[in-house]
From TrEMBL:
Residues 9-292 form the Glycoside hydrolase family 3 N-terminal domain. GO terms for molecular function: hydrolase activity, hydrolyzing O-glycosyl compounds. Keywords: Glycoprotein, Glycosidase, Hydrolase. One of its GO terms (biological process) is peptidoglycan turnover. Gene3D superfamilies: Glycoside hydrolase family 3 C-terminal domain, Glycoside hydrolase, family 3, N-terminal domain. This is Glycoside hydrolase family 3 protein. Belongs to the glycosyl hydrolase 3 family. Pfam families: Glyco_hydro_3. Signal peptide: none annotated. InterPro entries: Acyl_CoA_acyltransferase, GH, Glyco_hydro_3_C_sf, Glyco_hydro_3_N, Glyco_hydro_3_N_sf, NagZ_Beta-hexosaminidase.
């Protein structure tokens, strides 16, 4: 592994010499030459004449183009491959679950697991297409580490495995699923949760063999964290650590620096074999994995004859252009409330501009690093535990003026005016700062990870307050804050009116910043992850893997999901307790079904389920459920998008419907959604929710004690309404024609199913004196086949509710001569009489439309659940087809 920063031609020569020695020694395959080349602030190879600087992973995501990330990765891999590198230690697949306080910072894409997956896989594909092997890192996650101040001085993951699976592990799982990830870097952090207590992930078989290989199915090379970590050496020792890493399932043990330590590790491996702690089979398994990876990324002709400087010279100009474009696209102006950008739009040339920069560590990619290291430098403060972890392999040299000196000079040249520049420290605002602030018309403050270096946040806020006070006294005083590393410094602090993010502070990033400040281009970058504002990227980001529902495989998982929903639902939704997987599988052939799931393929658990149906030109979402413990991670969105795409592709589709009466588990959006969360969610998914149709399930709980309201039967008779009960499809043509004219197409199929069940169901018809049909309703005996598709007709487990009779889908012609409300009351009355005759203890009246249930309340019915059904044209979702 290359860890120094030699020039390109020196690297090419060194690698070629190493490969020649290996070839002459009889190695069957070339050496693996690995390199950290993440871009941004982590580049092990830098040569300003031949190797290009590109933005960090977060900076690339800020540019908002997956294709651009792919091109950058391919360009990076092409350059390092030219000097003989065949394994790049990337991409970084960590999710910044607690983004503001994690030392990983801009090395990670952001805090959205799907976005991290999307950009991580794009980078991986770029590396692979340039011909080198890839290594995802840092498994299982460096994105949410807790620094507990333990004696071990090591960060800990405290999330449960379930929490990790929903967020941190998503990019690793998705990258593995592509089949293009060659290796996995297993971190050295600890894990403490109810199911796992691990001091070092890379030394634990629970992490490597169980989680990585068995749970996620990774078959590639597992690489350990560097065993020269101070804490690991002090606690375990390199010999024992090597044995533990191999026992855990690591195939390559990383030792980065000292030759004597590498010999110590080899000695430990021999002792492990002698003590039978490690078997030869275990060694041969790793050997096969490593040889397989070598075969995919190198060969002797390629290793012995790297293209070197000749290729780098040819591609350098095009890569510089790509670098410049990516940096320009990544610069993000989060706020510019006072329209301070560009500065030339309001500052006169003779006015003074003040640049205030912190003392920070130079980036390895900086061409000034060598000069800084050789010059006189001073330390701003003792490194924190975060810093020790984040930069443990780097020097503790600090420099303020060194890193930002060229920024000041370039800014002065570009605006053709005077620039004042000084640094600031944890000592806060000093008299020198006050004097310069009084002189300047505009102050630019740079911050670098101010959420962890709190003195920077305090300094910027103090200066902001001073500027506000000076402006109030009539002075011209404007403030621009630039976050040159983490964008989270002031992302949510609107008191900083003009806020720019560059995502790293290499010379290339600072040059792009100067162009923004001076108006050379208008920045279009956006903040990463959950802070992102760009709809373009949100639309294109990767979704959860959605699969078609398989009854044999998924029915148990769906039952478990429904029970979890019932436990978490409001009392008005307790009918979910009687909803089962079979509820959604209809016997009606005219209704075509397509159901979808998001599931854990290892445990068979369902995280989400969506039922869709198509009948007579109408596409219907008949259910959409997400495990209550796994919401807000895009599962529902992924399911709905897949469902809508499937429905939109149906030939003859005329409308989309949200909610369904057959099956009757999900009649629409529950009307008791008082906070509007579900409505807003569906609205965000493209639904127009302006014109709902209200539907309700009603019940009479003690049917034996119920009596018809006085005078109701007489009013019905005076209106000339009569009733009869039919069974079977013979003679039912008028009923079906009536329902087809006045109800949804799935309601028609509900009637067909009821008429076919001649022993348990029938249809009551309401007619006028001329025998014209006024209305219909289905009557179900307790335990009918239809009850399995209408959950309110079933008794909840553990409740002695007695037999439940059904009165389903009352359909009344609104233009009937008699009052529609009276017709509905008559149908309900006939249904209740039939239910009583069938020994029902309760009656449920399902699918009452709009406000028609008001007359039913006067009969003693109570509202069991209320829903809002919506229909929209399929054009609303043209982008998903």
């Amino acid at each position: 592994m290359l860890t120094a920063t030699p020039a390109a031609h020196q690297t090419a020569r060194l690698v070629q010499e190493l490969q020649t020695i290996a070839h002459q020694a009889g190695h069957p395959q070339p050496l693996l030459i690995a390199l950290d080349q993440e871009n941004g602030g982590v580049n092990s190879l830098y040569d300003e004449d031949y190797i290009c600087q590109f933005p960090s992973a977060m900076g690339q995501a800020a540019a908002g183009s997956v294709d651009l990330t792919y091109k950058v990765a391919k360009a990076t891999a092409t350059e390092v491959s030219a000097v003989g590198v065949n394994l790049i230690l990337g991409p970084v697949l960590d999710v910044l679950s607690n983004a503001r306080y994690q030392p990983l910072g801009v090395r990670a894409t952001g805090d959205d697991p799907q976005e991290v997956s999307q950009y991580g896989i794009a980078a991986m594909n770029g590396y692979k297409d340039a011909g080198i092997a890839t290594c995802g890192k840092h498994f299982p996650s460096y994105g949410n580490l807790d620094f507990l101040g333990s004696s071990l001085d090591i960060p800990i993951i405290t999330q449960t495995l379930e929490e990790l699976s929903l967020s941190a592990l998503v990019p690793f799982r998705n990258a593995i699923a592509t089949g293009r990830l060659d290796a996995m870097f297993v971190g050295g952090c600890g894990i403490t949760n109810p199911s796992m207590n691990v001091n070092h992930a890379c030394l634990s078989d629970q992490v490597v063999d169980d989680l990585l290989r068995n749970e996620l199915g990774f078959q590639g090379v597992a690489i350990s964290e560097c065993l020269e970590m101070e804490v690991l050496r002090n606690e375990i020792g390199v010999k024992t650590g090597t044995v533990m890493a191999v026992e855990a399932g690591c195939d390559l043990v990383l030792l980065c620096r000292a030759y004597d330590v590498q010999l110590e590790a080899i000695s430990g491996l021999k002792l492990g074999l002698e003590n039978e702690l490690i078997t030869k089979d275990r060694i041969y398994t790793s050997l096969r994995r490593v040889l397989r990876m070598k075969k995919s990324c190198t060969s002797w002709p390629k290793a012995l004859n790297p293209p070197g400087i000749s290729l780098l010279s040819k591609i350098h100009a095009s890569h510089l252009a790509l670098s410049s474009k990516t940096y320009d696209d990544s610069i993000s102006v989060v706020r510019d409330n006072e329209n301070l950008l560009p500065l030339s739009g309001w500052m006169h040339q003779e006015e003074e501009l003040l640049l205030l920069t912190p003392l920070v560590k130079p980036l390895p990619a900086s061409s000034m690093t060598k000069a800084i290291l050789e010059g006189k430098n001073r330390s701003d403060a003792a490194p924190t535990t975060h810093d020790k972890w984040a930069h443990r392999d780097r020097g503790a040299i600090m420099s303020g003026e060194g890193v930002f000196r060229e920024l000041g000079r370039s800014l002065a040249r570009s605006r053709h005016g005077k620039l004042l520049h000084t640094s600031y420290t944890a000592n806060g605002v000093r008299p020198v700062h006050e004097n310069l602030i009084n002189r300047a018309s505009c102050i630019i403050i740079a911050t670098a990870d101010a959420n962890r270096n709190l003195y920077q946040a305090g300094f910027a806020k103090h200066v902001a307050m001073m500027c506000s006070m000076l402006k109030a006294s009539g002075q011209k005083k404007s403030l621009v804050v630039v976050a040159v590393s983490s964008p989270y410094d002031f992302a949510m602090d609107k008191s900083i009116g003009t806020y720019i993010c560059t995502f790293d502070f290499t010379e290339t990033a600072m040059a792009a910043l100067v162009r923004v400040l001076c108006g050379k281009f208008k920045p279009q970058g956006t903040l990463p992850g959950t802070l992102r504002k760009s709809r373009k990227v949100l639309k294109s980001r990767q979704h959860w893997l959605v699969e078609s529902y398989d009854r044999e495989r998924d029915s148990k998982g769906l039952d478990d999901l429904l029970q979890a929903l019932a436990r978490a639902s409001a009392p008005t939704q307790q009918f979910l307790r009687t909803t089962r997987a079979h509820t959604f599988e209809l016997p009606s052939r005219p209704i075509e079904e397509s159901h979808y799931v998001v599931r854990n393929s290892s445990t068979q658990a369902l995280y989400g389920f969506c039922a869709t149906y198509y009948v007579n030109g109408t596409g219907i979402i008949g259910a959409l459920f997400v495990d209550p413990t796994k919401r807000n991670v895009s599962i529902g969105r992924s399911l709905q998008r897949r469902a809508l795409r499937g429905l939109a592709q149906r030939p003859g589709i005329k409308k989309m419907q949200l909610g369904m009466s057959f099956p009757g588990a999900f009649l629409g959006i529950p009307a008791d959604d008082s906070a509007g969360g579900l409505k807003q969610w569906f609205a965000n998914g493209g639904w127009d929710l302006q014109f709902p149709r209200r539907l309700a399930n009603l019940t009479i709980g003690a049917l034996g004690a119920w009596a018809a309201p006085e005078g109701l039967l007489q009013r019905i008779q005076r209106a000339g309404i009569s009733f009869d009960l039919i069974h079977g499809l013979d003679g039912a043509d008028s009923v079906l024609a009536h329902v087809k004219a006045h109800a949804n197409p799935e309601v028609l199929e509900l009637y067909r199913a009821a008429l076919q069940d001649t022993k348990m169901c029938g249809v009551v018809r309401a007619k006028n004196h001329t025998a014209s049909l006024l209305g219909t309703v289905i009557i179900c005996r307790p335990g009918s086949r239809l009850a399995r598709f209408v959950p309110p007709l079933q008794s909840a487990p553990g409740r002695d509710e007695g037999p439940i009779g059904g009165i389903l889908a009352p359909t009344v012609a609104p233009s009937s001569a008699a009052q529609p409300g009276l017709v509905l009351q008559g149908l309900a009355l006939m249904g209740l009489r039939q239910n009583k005759a069938h020994q029902s203890q309760r009656s449920v009246l399902s699918w009452v439309q709009d406000e028609a249930y008001e007359p039913l309340l006067a009969m003693g019915f109570e509202v069991l659940q209320a829903f809002e059904e919506f229909t929209n044209p399929p054009d609303n979702w043209q982008d998903v087809a």
